[in-house]
Amino acid sequence: MAAGPGAADNEPRMNDADTPQVTETDARLRALDGRLERTNELLQRMLAEVARTPSTHAIFVDAGYVHAAAGLLVAGTEDRRSFDLDAEGLIEAFIDKARTIFADSRLLRVYWYDGARRRIHTPEQQAIAELPDVKVRLGNLNANNQQKGVDSLIRTDLESLARHRAISDAALVGGDEDLVSAVEAAQGYGARVHLWGIEAAEGRNQAEALLWEVDSQRTFELDFCRPYVTRRPVTTYENEGEPPPSREEVRFVGAQIAATWLGERGRDRLAELLPGAPYLPGPVDQDLLVEAERLLSRSLRGHAALRRALRDGFWQHVKAQF
């Protein structure tokens, strides 16, 4: 039977105007598929690169805590003037320990936080700063030889490195409760913080609040610390019954020590002391006193005028060289 005249009208028709629209849509879909493929390929390459890139760790050392805790544990005193700390050896021991703990990670660097008057490096701090992979950061040292500003430096570095994904793990050697905020800041950016401490001679030398916040804890015991702490010998003086030396004699000894140090420590290190004149950083002043007492075979403790004469002689020679 022939189709009626209206049958063809019921079949769908495609207008010529419809054809470009379908073609344009297909082209857009194909372009979108291409971009998705390229994006997926890029993501896969990035993930592969990340998988090949080792994680990174850094070690943050509160030198004040280390001196106090290790000195008390090994030498029986927190007084820095009573013992010597082999900072280079201890830092290397920390690095070796980190290599074992973070086996698949590389070391960014060791941060050594200490205090100094007017933030001027002492000769000992300068020597530490010259070690490879070590950065010395200085807070202030007040009249009571107390560190000021060290905790804020630790927080700044920890937070910044974690925020920029420069580290995945941080080993923190310290014990002050003020470090809690530094730990929280680093953890907020995804870094793991591991608290390292030194065995307490008695009681506890790390704040409980700090122990609660960190991701792991580790304590270094006496046998670990003993090789790096040496108690200074107690000097005996044979001439204590005689009158004290004159101020001129002590002033001459001060100049003599300055001349010796100039040859041993170098002009640059002594020149760094000039901005602090007439004061000397605590450790340098202590070294000057100990050396003067050795040369004089007399104690200058309790003789404030003679100690001033000693510093006068020291500064007189130093300033004459610059």
UniProtKB/TrEMBL annotation:
<protein>
    <recommendedName>
        <fullName>NYN domain-containing protein</fullName>
    </recommendedName>
</protein>
<dbReference type="InterPro" id="IPR021139">
    <property type="entry name" value="NYN"/>
</dbReference>
<dbReference type="Pfam" id="PF01936">
    <property type="entry name" value="NYN"/>
</dbReference>
<dbReference type="GO" id="GO:0004540">
    <property type="term" value="F:RNA nuclease activity"/>
</dbReference>
<feature type="domain" description="NYN">
    <location>
        <begin position="58"/>
        <end position="202"/>
    </location>
</feature>
<feature type="region of interest" description="Disordered">
    <location>
        <begin position="1"/>
        <end position="24"/>
    </location>
</feature>
